[in-house]
């Protein structure tokens, strides 16, 4: 996995521009000339064109511009002309404006632990604004770090009421990204549509194998020789959303369900942490049900 | 993957004993005392007990015994008493008696090539007696090694007739193991029941994901971040037989179906070669729909 | 990596027997008959013979015996005859008697965190008796878990004095195993000889590459495409002791020294955790400068 | 490993441009505008700047331009002005002009086999013009594919004479890249300087571990838990040239030197094949003793 290099620069002056449009001659020239003329220095750029399929073009720039925050509005205004010409969809984001995240968790807190750890060591560039759980297991850890912890009991009979509380909380805390770190409740379409491509889940199998409940039991019964985990954006089709990252680990006949779970937890935590990191750094673009990840 | 060490010993005197029975105190003592008293020196032993599930005990011995071929009958006779006492299922095999194999292949011959290559370099301890194909692509390669190549055109309309020919051929060549090295025809239950746990297939996906046809296309459409391959024994449930080996390789958004296939072929060939090797060395025990692999 | 299965058994009645001797016919028979006659039921057994090199035989048994703690002395006494006959070196250990460990750490606490985490989740079967550091960074974490933390400043000028304090501490806490979780001080031969094959170190490179100081800087300069970590027993030859476990991770030209370190820390923590786990479960046998690991 | 996607385009019209210069604002804009104005459509672009170290900028373009071969000279001429302004080092290459390669091999031909195989299946975009060996082992295979095979016995006493013959042969066959596929002879500085960054070697260890002779024996003696292979450009420092690719595979105490070799051969062949493929596609840039690989 690659980790990138711009550590020393003044974060206030770092911006990102993501662009998606129909592929045409001259796009890179137009974009890079725009950045140059606006005195933005390109730190990193990645592009992809899906020419054989639908002819779409995708690019991500990370750039450095002195006094970026002052010039920001002017830059975005100037860009709108290029965007119009090429019919681009685009997003400007600013490194200084950290995304605000909420973590949802149930009884098993290993993924929560990993995220908090990576966050403490500076690898996850986010404000963890709130943790929500239908169990109390994570409270001590979360509160010890000064993060608010909300215990909201949940089950399918009170789903609507629970989700109303959760949506209200997400609004109160102005959440940009919602991380399901082994939150073992199904979310309704109504909830999901509040956060399109903003809910990241970790599923404890190598999707599309073992969609749904109890994947380790089913992996055991099928006698697989590798187990896996998958991090994906949540859509209304259970475990069918765009995949951000996957990984596997070798197992053998000596493993039973509890030991598969132990091994799987290691995979889950690293897969989720990578996916969240890439999302926070605006490295993931969703294209239908697939992702382009510029890591 | 481990490769084992007995290279120098006189192969004529190497035997293997596989045993399966209800777990009880004294089994290892009885078996190892039996081997000791019959002057068989244990070269390698591996055991497994599935105590929490069904209390079964599995063991594989590889041993060295001077004049094994002369003493073989006597050894097997003597063993029958122990086997009776513990109600054991068991198999004696002899390293000198190579299994005879048939390879079935269609248009894509990369798995065939890998098997022939490993066989030439001494890693697959088998007599490759015959290659059968519904295409002519492999003929030159196969015949250049002095192996008979049978072209038997196949499609679903003439399946019965084709399988009759194939079964006859397997009998004629006294085949012990039948390797489907990307043979793209479905075998009927009638064919399969002639060769229980003796047909090894390579499926070009990480089962149980993408069972059936066109797995690379479906992997592409699902946007997976790893692709895999699975080698398994063939049963009458398509792609549902006991898994012997699996592996995966990382891919990304830049891959299209042709490049997924290229990467996948590398995985297929190493997964199949390992599974065949382990089968030939009597390292695989089938337990319901799972395998115990003593590699 | 395999994790094994005996979770439910009464731990009081689980014992382990490790044996090393010249390979001869009849050893397995003698050992398994001994266990059987003493009513010990074998849960797991692994063996290895280095026949081609020096003809040594190694075996590890994990067994279950009702009232083991009461029968323990009698069992060991009875064994001494077999041991004498075959000139065996051997060790009896008892699952109920957890090894007592000390963790040494400096400024970077990621390996300490991983060990504490695995220990809390029940994966490291040890009493962590004390943590020693030449920095204060780990204190809050360690004390929050009720483990004594000793700050002992260290540098090469006061090495002798520091080591005297440390040895005294190890005695006071009756330490069985000493884990160097990125302790960045060199230990003297005098210190090391107090703890033969009982000090486990993590070195932040794929040994024997980059022995000594600043391995990530040197890996960067050499332009390697993978970085690694190595856990080994400490001997008086710096970074030359018997290797227990190693692993690697892919890097590329975009990585600089700080990002190599970040990636490397993930490798270090999992490599050390595995090595410590295997040591605690008596799965590691040292053979000259190599290890046999029955995992 | 990623394999890229442009399969269907008319190869005649595909070109590549590699550029290296001091990083300055406006480079990407200048280059992409140049390509756009010359009607070259960018298929793939990858860039890297080593800002923290020496402020160098590297970029690789793959582009499509109708009638490229006719416009080629004009394009290169036009570019010279930009190159001058930014003080660029640069290379134009053309997909239609395959590199001509020579393979050097000794007794062990597994790497040769892998290269020939990948070449036959269209994955190595080269003309294999000649194979040179100090043994006869590869002759039958090589000649069966219509490739000239030269047997040139070699040893250190006749090195100079041998190398003269080899250099003459390389000239006769107009060789662009020289692949040492386990050629077990040391090349003199005199030979090497004829082919700067054009000789690709496979070393059978994870460099810088086990530089020099007999790496598997030394890996065995050191008791490593992974073995590796390294492909690198040859310089006059033995096994010290810029690394293109490395990989490792897990081994354990059961492996002896012959089985380490078997496992290692699998690693060697895939590592060399990747490195050669990337070199042939102009994906590798040498920067001091390191490589930038745009795969």
UniProtKB/TrEMBL annotation, chains A, B, C, D:
Residues 16-103 form the ACT domain. It catalyses: (6R)-10-formyltetrahydrofolate + H2O = (6S)-5,6,7,8-tetrahydrofolate + formate + H(+). PROSITE patterns: ACT (PS51671). One of its GO terms (biological process) is one-carbon metabolic process. Keywords: Hydrolase, One-carbon metabolism, Purine biosynthesis. Its EC number is 3.5.1.10. GO terms for molecular function: formyltetrahydrofolate deformylase activity. It comes from the Bacteria. Pfam families: ACT, Formyl_trans_N. Pathway: Purine metabolism; IMP biosynthesis via de novo pathway; formate from 10-formyl-5,6,7,8-tetrahydrofolate: step 1/1. It is an enzyme of class 3 (hydrolase). The active site is at residue 239. SUPFAM superfamilies: ACT-like, Formyltransferase. InterPro entries: ACT-like_dom_sf, ACT_dom, Formyl-FH4-Hydrolase_C, Formyl_transf_N, Formyl_transf_N_sf, PurU, PurU_ACT. HAMAP family: PurU (MF_01927). Belongs to the PurU family. Catalyzes the hydrolysis of 10-formyltetrahydrofolate (formyl-FH4) to formate and tetrahydrofolate (FH4). This is Formyltetrahydrofolate deformylase. It comes from Candidatus Pseudogracilibacillus intestinigallinarum. The gene is purU.
